């Protein structure tokens, strides 16, 4: 009987995790066999990816190792998406502030069904104006790179210099109030909850 490529990879991941957790717990194969009520030969086959495991076998292994069953699958889906944006190549997006000279560059987005985080590089220049404070879902984090500005959140006002950070609830009215030293550049990262809509 031939093994599908995905099945072989799963067996190898489980083998690696069982060996890793057994060694971390300083257990011999014989001791783990006793704890799981399995033969040493069967454990050797599992650790060498020479057999597949049933759900009950996985449960016995996890109990014997003192880890959740899901820990035995760590590494199965290691390929994760990453986005690299070279300096000056962020996608320019139009926002409410765009019409008053604010430049927003999107620094990355993943192709997931729902957006969870939005990183932007915001640039304010001599031509920029301040505008009424705005609101949105999620939590926003600002980090100032260049310039000085007064930033409002609700009734509070913060004078932000390079290296300063500000994090706040996006539902509170917020935005630049005064541009004190131009040009101003800051990173804005908004984290959305699973049900938030940007």
From TrEMBL:
<protein>
    <submittedName>
        <fullName>HTH-type transcriptional regulator</fullName>
    </submittedName>
</protein>
<dbReference type="InterPro" id="IPR013096">
    <property type="entry name" value="Cupin_2"/>
</dbReference>
<keyword id="KW-0238">DNA-binding</keyword>
<feature type="domain" description="HTH cro/C1-type">
    <location>
        <begin position="18"/>
        <end position="72"/>
    </location>
</feature>
<dbReference type="InterPro" id="IPR050807">
    <property type="entry name" value="TransReg_Diox_bact_type"/>
</dbReference>
<dbReference type="InterPro" id="IPR001387">
    <property type="entry name" value="Cro/C1-type_HTH"/>
</dbReference>
<dbReference type="GO" id="GO:0003677">
    <property type="term" value="F:DNA binding"/>
</dbReference>
<dbReference type="GO" id="GO:0003700">
    <property type="term" value="F:DNA-binding transcription factor activity"/>
</dbReference>
<dbReference type="Pfam" id="PF13560">
    <property type="entry name" value="HTH_31"/>
</dbReference>
<dbReference type="InterPro" id="IPR011051">
    <property type="entry name" value="RmlC_Cupin_sf"/>
</dbReference>
<dbReference type="GO" id="GO:0005829">
    <property type="term" value="C:cytosol"/>
</dbReference>
<dbReference type="InterPro" id="IPR010982">
    <property type="entry name" value="Lambda_DNA-bd_dom_sf"/>
</dbReference>
<dbReference type="InterPro" id="IPR014710">
    <property type="entry name" value="RmlC-like_jellyroll"/>
</dbReference>
<dbReference type="Pfam" id="PF07883">
    <property type="entry name" value="Cupin_2"/>
</dbReference>
């Amino acid at each position: 009987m031939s093994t599908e490529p995905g099945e072989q990879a799963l067996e190898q991941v489980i083998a690696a995790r069982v060996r890793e957790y057994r060694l971390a717990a300083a257990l011999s194969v014989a001791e783990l066999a006793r704890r799981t009520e399995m033969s040493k030969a069967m454990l050797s086959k599992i650790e060498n990816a020479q057999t597949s495991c049933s759900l009950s076998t996985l449960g016995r292994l996890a109990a014997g190792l003192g880890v959740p069953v899901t820990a035995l699958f760590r590494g199965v889906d290691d390929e994760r998406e990453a986005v690299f944006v070279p300096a000056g190549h962020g996608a320019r997006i139009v926002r409410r502030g765009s019409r008053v000279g604010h430049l927003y560059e999107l620094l990355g987005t993943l192709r997931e069904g729902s957006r969870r985080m939005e990183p932007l590089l915001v640039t304010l220049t001599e031509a920029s104006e301040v505008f009424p404070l705005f609101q949105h879902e999620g939590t926003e984090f600002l980090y100032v790179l260049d310039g000085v500005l007064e930033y409002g959140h609700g009734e509070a006002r913060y004078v932000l210099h390079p290296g300063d950070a500000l994090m706040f609830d996006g539902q509170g009215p917020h935005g630049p109030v005064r541009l004190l030293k131009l040009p101003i550049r800051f990173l804005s990262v908004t984290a959305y909850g699973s049900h938030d809509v940007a």
